[in-house]
């Protein structure tokens, strides 16, 4: 029995080590690819001025679609932020997905909204549209109330009523940086085949907000949100920049993405029955153009930033990660024919298989590794030097990857400039491995289990509101 367990231990140890090596190789490759792209961004940013861009006549018209559900704590500030975004030709379309709180009342009162007719331009099937409003003080602001149908359904209502060639999907609490639309629209000016561009998501918790703008960027006070800052830096400053460098970006976050309206309508909009609707839409766009042999590009603008509130408690964060895991598995299964299929280019051959291995199957491998470690301790057959070596290697790989991502973010964007914030980031590089990472594994395992049970529940996301300062 002992010999059998020893064999099992070594087999699982080898599997776990191989998994961490694969993660390290993938992140090292994307980080290396990200550096030259961020170097170009840094050079371009030095010559970019919002004032000059505002006078340009080439900026394509954009409709900002902001779905909201029970957002009374942040809705007015979020809409003010959208109104304050500098861009010559934009419309703002707020879609209320049957809120049960005072979201609608607060918006109607704050922006002098009155009933108005807005005709549809597309026929994507959605829940019933109840009424529409337009602001008397800001004619570029529209508000639509609809029956509850979920976030994707609300965005589809916005798509149906979009009148511009480009549409931008946002979260209900999004605060766009003043130059975000210029930066995210730039790829459309450089390449006419562009159908979708991703922006960067920043965490606004405890930042200083005035007049709908983030004026003081600082690390959150709570550790739950701080860990997420590090995760977002890894995801956007390293991973997505790297995938984009080889034209293999598999995911555009629904919290900030700019899409060609005609392409989104052609693929039928977002799937309201899919939990990972933003991931599914991105893959659907890849498939649509690849299967028809149409030239296209899916791009990433790392300098275009949208600030959003992240979960501040473990309970809410756990529900979010559970949902992300279920959504990812659901979408990969739905588009499984893309996996290792050369017809779908580098997305099908490289980035989507990597996503499946690292993000979707990774928690299972980690959980098995932890289980074998505990069993070895209980049975007294643990090879302590080997176990310490494996744990040290895994920790070192994770720390190095995180430090590289933070370095890239500081090199190109420099959002966190105080020594205190930088010190906190470096502390979290190590601290996240001492409990937080294990929690995320547990939450993601719950997501795997719910996926197998076909549980499509969304889970509640509570808001605490922005740290708004007076003008």
What topology emerges from the helices and strands here?
Blueprint: H1 2-47, H2 50-54, E1 62-68, H3 75-84, E2 90-97, H4 103-111, E3 113-115, E4 129-135, E5 141-146, H5 151-160, E6 166-170, E7 175-176, H6 180-190, E8 194-203, E9 208-210, E10 213-216, H7 223-245, E11 256-260, H8 261-266, H9 277-291, E12 297-308, H10 314-334, H11 345-360, H12 362-379, H13 384-412, H14 419-452
Parallel strand pairs: 1-2, 1-6, 2-5, 8-12
Antiparallel strand pairs: 3-4, 4-5, 6-11, 7-12, 8-11, 9-10
Helix pairs in contact: 1-7, 1-12, 1-13, 7-13, 7-14, 9-10, 10-11, 10-14, 12-14, 13-14
Q: What fraction of the residues are assigned to beta strands by DSSP? A: 15-25%
Q: How does the overall form come out from the CA principal axes?
A: globular
Low-confidence stretches: none
Supply the helix-strand structural class.
alpha/beta
> How many helical elements?
14
Encode the helix/strand succession as letters. Answer: HHEHEHEEEHEEHEEEHEHHEHHHHH
End-to-end separation in angstroms reads 72 Å
Reported by name, the CATH topology of the domain at 27-60 and 165-353 is Spore Coat Polysaccharide Biosynthesis Protein SpsA, Chain A
Radius of gyration: 23 Å
Major sheet: order of its strands?
Answer: 3-4-5-2-1-6-11-8-12-7
Give the helix proportion (percent range). 40-55%
Q: What would the average pLDDT be, to the nearest integer?
A: 87
Quick one: CATH class of the domain at 27-60 and 165-353? Alpha Beta
Task: Tell me the major beta sheet.
Answer: 10 strands, mixed
Q: Which second-level CATH architecture of the domain at 27-60 and 165-353 applies?
A: Alpha-Beta Complex
The number of E-state strands comes to 12
